[in-house]
Specification:
single chain, about 110 residues, 2 domains, three-stranded mixed sheet, 7 helices, 3 strands
Length: about 110
Amino acid sequence: MQTLGIKELQKNPAILTRSLEADEYTMITKRSTPIGFAISFDDSIIDVGLKTALMVDAFKKGYLSLGQFAKSLQLPKEEAMKMLSMMDADVIDYDFEDDLKFVDAFDGHK
């Protein structure tokens, strides 16, 4: 997340534009006090609502665990997993390459 002072924003608004185009969250401050929050627009904001869209995005970026995601939307974990799946979020982080390395190492010990 980027923090951007209001004076800096006034002098160079392109900083905010670049941040939004990079799909970064940006906190806007005035005299080091947060006054706003900028996020990139996504159709899911309209389709599923702002809070849900933000929570799904935060989960996809690794900012929230499954439990935190479920709690923030007051859902049972099973329902949270279904929602994430429908929103094209990987619910299980599985690294196939690590398993292949393990198999290769195991085969090398024969």
